[in-house]
Amino acid sequence: MGRGKPFGTAHAEDEIERLARSARFIKWTTPLGEIIDLTVPPTVYPPREDTTLLASVLNRQRLSPKTRWLEIGCGSGALSAYAARFGCNVTACDVNPLAVACTREYFLRTGTDARVLEGGPGPIEDGGLAQWGGDFLYDVVVWNTPYLSTSVLDDGALGPLEEAAFTDTDSKGLHVRLFDLLSKGQLLTEQGVAYITVSSKGFAPEAQAEAWCRGLAARTVAQTRFDDGETLSVLAVWRPYTGSPILSVESTNSTNDDVINLSTQAGASVRAQHQSDGRGRRGRRWTNTEGAMMASWLVTEGSSLEHRTMDQLRIGEALVHLLRVWSKCHKNDVCLKWPNDVYIRANKERLAKAGGVLFEAVSQGRKHRLVLGVGVNIEAPITSEFGGIRNLGLEIDAPTLHASIHAMVASMFEHLLGVPDSWVEKARIEMAVMHGVSLLGNPLYRGDELPVNGIDSDGALTVLGGEHLVDDPDSLTWSNL
Prior knowledge:
alpha+beta
């Protein structure tokens, strides 16, 4: 119950009254224009805008006969009914016994073979994973996760069964419990994908980074905005770059060179404990503190080497977001310095460089490769000019950080059959750039201050008045550094 209130006599009476209401007969139209007839008892979640949003994503997915499907929190069973029409091998579950009965009734009525079980992820494993379908690995896992604020409980609008369907009252977050299961190798096949809904009024701002922290790739693949300003998103979650080699070496000249010579498979990554000839922008030496996380990835291999400043900004913004969510630090303790540096608050007085991002395009005969290098300091001595993630209170090591950044990189660049590619969220990246400017000060060009007001579509800085575009970071100094 909301705010820890006990389930008392008044609640029981209200729930009995709700259960006495008549069932509703609903016709839900699928993205393919088909009609699915559903008989929905009271307290069972009917198909709504979020159901249709999920279905529109799944319509582009690889649903096919024999696809092993699990829907958590199936409610009326609309999505599982939709999957069954593709010939999927359907398992569905819900904590609400009336939802279980509703979904079973549909499959019995239509003569469709499906498994519908009672239960789901939660603070206590009631009977273990097998009770609600976790005894198999699935190609597709779908969960229209409860995302309403617990404030809806305050006016008594919902009873206990409705509360379980509509609201996430789990202090950890139900999506995090799902991520924990997936990161342990449960529920999903090696190349399986999970789809969940997250709300801007709930856990959406942190959900993607929470997946990265656990070594899972996560990408927003669909969104809808409601009249009250709430944005509902569908997040695709998977194990990153399945089959691509991930190597750790004690010492190397350059992890970029190692990746270039290692493989033609996108997502190949090399991390080194020591790097003697790491490269920064324009061939400069890449400097890190001892024990830093230094790794490179083969992002693309083919005919095109096109990359823009925006690509560096995407990685830099995502890295800042990951560190902020992971450490639960104040937003002013870590920021992005345009276009490719991460700064961390080393002490109360100063921000110090703690990481950097570099793309390098390489041609070898007919081979064209785009390589991404990322360096992040784990710890920096007090006397050092640099900062490290320990300054944020993060007690993680280089291998753990490498796995999380590997998932982050896959979220942006990995191509998966049936999963829409990542799009550039310019507004979010621009906000990160402007936050960095607010902390580091406006940049100076030849001694003159440039009042930055945003970025253009390629990632170049735009200056107040629109007279200037700045795309060369080497021409700038920063007023607070």
